[in-house]
Each structure stands twice: as C-alpha cells, then as structure tokens.
Amino acid sequence: MKQNRRQFIYKSFAGLTAMVISPHVFSYSLFQKNKSYDSKPWIELSEAAYLYNVSQISKMAKGKPIIAVLKNNAYGLGDVQVARILNNSSSIAGIAIVKDERAIAMRNEGVSKPILLMGDFDSVIANALVEKEITLSIFSKDSLKKINTLAKETNKAIKVALYIDTGLGRMGIPYKETIRIAEEIKKNDKLSITQTFSTLTTPKDFAKEQIQRFESITNELNEKGISTGIKHLAPSYSLLDLPQSHQEAVRPGILLHGSFPSVKMEEAKQFPLKVTYRLKAPVIRLEKLKAGDTIGFSRFYKINKDEWIATLPLGWADGYDSGAENGAMVLLNGKLYRVVNVNASHTNISLGAKTKIKVGDIATLIGPERPEITPEGFGKLVKGHNYLQINYKESIPKKTYETF
Fold this sequence. Notes:
By secondary structure, the chain is of the alpha/beta class. It has helices spanning 5-12, 17-21, 23-34, 47-60, 71-75, 79-86, 100-108, 126-131, 141-154, 178-186, 204-223, 236-241, 267-270, 375-381, and strands at 42-46, 66-69, 92-97, 115-117, 134-138, 158-165, 173-174, 191-197, 230-232, 277-282, 285-289, 294-295, 301-302, 307-312, 329-332, 335-342, 347-352, 362-366, 398-401. The strands form three sheets. It has a nine-stranded mixed β-sheet. Strands 2, 3, 4, 5, 6, 7, 8 and 9 form an eight-stranded parallel β-sheet that branches. The chain is elongated.
C-alpha cells in the first residue's frame, strides 16, 4: 500500500509517540527523574486503591468482567498510568477510551489488555491502530465504510465493535438500522465483531426500554448467525441501579476512581470505595496581608483582619474547580485551611493571623487523609458534585505508588 507523506512521517517517528501525543506520559518520566517539584502541582495514584475498587465493582456486578472506561484522560488522572495499574487485574476484561491517540499511547506503555476505541479515528494513524490490535467501533454507515476501506488497504483482520444507539441520541448506529449494517459487516471476512455495546441514559424507565431494544437486536443478530461478541451496556450509574443492564460485562468509569455517580447511594455503604489519588502542590508564596486588602481581579476575598495568605501554583486552568473558593479545604502540615480564591493559575489559602507554614511546604488539595478533602468531601463543602474534582489537565505530572 502506498503511504502518503503524513503516514510516512508518523511511522518514522513511532518511537516518539508517547512523548508527542501523550504529554502527561512524558511529564511522568520527568517526574520520576526529578522525584518531586518545588514549583508545580502533581498527582499521586495508589495502585492498591484502584485494585481494591476493582474488587468492589466485581462484587457489585456479581463477578461479571469489567471494561474500564478511561475516557478524558481517565478524568484527568492519567489514562496511561491508570491503565497500567488495571492491566494487573484479572477482573479487568479490557479498557475503553474515546480518543485514538490514547489507545496507541497505552500500547506503547505496555498495556496488553484489549482496548476498545469508542470514538472515531484519524486515517493518518489508522494503520498503527490495526497493528496494535485496537478494537474499532462501527457507530454509523460512514464509519463502516471507513473501516472497510482500511481493511482493504491493510489486508489485515480487524476487530470491530458494534456500537448501537438505543436512545441516547449521541453516538452509535440508530437501533432500527443496526441489523442492516451488521449484515454488511458480515460480508467482509476481514472484520470480526468482538463486542456489541450501547450507552444507557440515567432515567430508569427509559433505560429499561433501551435494554429491551438492545436485547431484541442482539437476539435477532444471533438468530441470523451474526456474532455479537461480548455485550455490555452498564456505565457506573446503571451498574448500581439496574442489575439487568449488566449483560456479559459492565463498563464503569467514575467508580474505578473511588467515587459514586450520585451522592447518598445506598451501595456506598455496602461496597465502600477508596480514594485513588492525591492532588498536591507546594506553597510558592507566603505573605501577610493587611485588613482592607483584597485578592483577585474581582476582589473576591477581602481581608477583615491581618492574615497570612499562601499561594499554590494550581488554578482552574489546570482543572482545579473554581468553586473551591466557596468553602473547600486544603491539608497543609497536618491542618486544614480554607481556600479563599481560585484563578486560572493559582489558588490562595487563608492561614490565619499566625502561621508556621513556609514556602516549599506541600499542600494536599484532594486525597484520602481527611473526609473534607476527598472528592465527596470537596463536593459537600462547595455544595456541588464530586465530579467537580476529576477534570485535571494532562500537563499535570503523575506518579504511581503501590499504596498510600
């Protein structure tokens, strides 16, 4: 097959993939080399906590295999790092992601579990996806055409997943068209359906209808002699709320990281999870502000009495939610302090009239040490959701520990 210039360049620089398309992997290597930072935030991951959560999810699903959803860079916690941890679990049947380059980054970092690409792919790296045995989703007639062309050009067998839209309306083959498209897939002996899946909405009544649609379609496909591979429907919420959604595998996301998809779920008592990460940052500035002084462009925080203010090099542009300034706490040298301002690049903490804190001391903004700084504790204090604290930028370095 003749390569175009972009494909040649991509292949020539394959050895640099992790650095070029996975900046947080590169940052991780830099972190390992330097051990710590004195001017940047970082994230610490606990292998033991992740594997514990996997065991709890397995119990929730009564032993069904788990397909771990690590989309959006594992909610900012590092998809490659988390995938490498989950790669060690026999309960994990595979990894599911949305971005094509992330699949390649995982393979380059030694992740051997099956990887499902739930989204589209760039033709420039299509060959690499096939070579690394990434399962490609067929979610429309156009995506089938694209994959048929790829199979013809590479002359290689390609694992595909049948992605059915049972009512979410966002992605997938409209359920009334699924049989016809599946019959077209069967005509290409280079394609093999190894997975069939859909995504459920949150309202239970409609989710039940989606399950009925899914089962009706997959039963008809099997009657026609079309393999459906492993069938899965259940994201974290449905996994807990609708046992009939479990099918042949479950597909959690937020549960893996130690958070439940909704507050006050009864399952949180029956299957307690562990916080899997810490968000940390050093104090880079320490000043005593006077009564009447203010902090921020909008003068959000006003000093009523002289007090020490610490500055951390982390802000909403890094993924730390700006709502933290509405009551969140930070752990610093064993004591909790209130967040009083968050801008794009910095977070300010009130230390009171006297302090022993020094520049260079390390703050934990999110972590398991105190209830107030867990994702749930953060959400409670700012009157928001724990999802608020899982949106960190890829540029934040990550380090994995066996346990905290």
